[in-house]
Design brief:
The structure is a single chain. By secondary structure, this protein is mostly helical. The longest helix is centred in the N-terminal third of the chain and has 25 residues.
Length: 64
C-alpha cells in the first residue's frame, strides 16, 4: 500500500478491530487469544460472537 490516505484508513480500521476484540475478551473474561480459544464456550456467548466474526470476515475479503 503506497497511498498515504489508504494507509491511514487501514491503520484506523486495524485499531478499531483490535479494540473490538479486546472488548470481546473482557466480556468473556480472558486476556488473550489463547485464553479465548481455550475457554469452554456457552451457547449464548457463541451467538453473540459469531455475527461479529462473519461481519469482520466479509469486510476483510471484500475490501482486500
Amino acid at each position: 500500500m503506497t497511498d498515504p490516505k489508504k494507509v491511514l484508513l487501514a491503520l484506523r480500521w486495524l485499531i478499531d478491530e483490535m479494540e473490538r476484540r479486546y472488548k470481546i475478551f473482557a466480556r468473556v473474561g480472558v486476556r488473550n487469544i489463547v485464553g479465548f480459544n481455550a475457554r469452554p464456550v456457552k451457547k449464548k456467548e457463541m451467538e453473540a460472537v459469531e455475527p461479529a466474526e462473519r461481519k469482520t470476515a466479509n469486510k476483510s475479503t471484500a475490501g482486500g
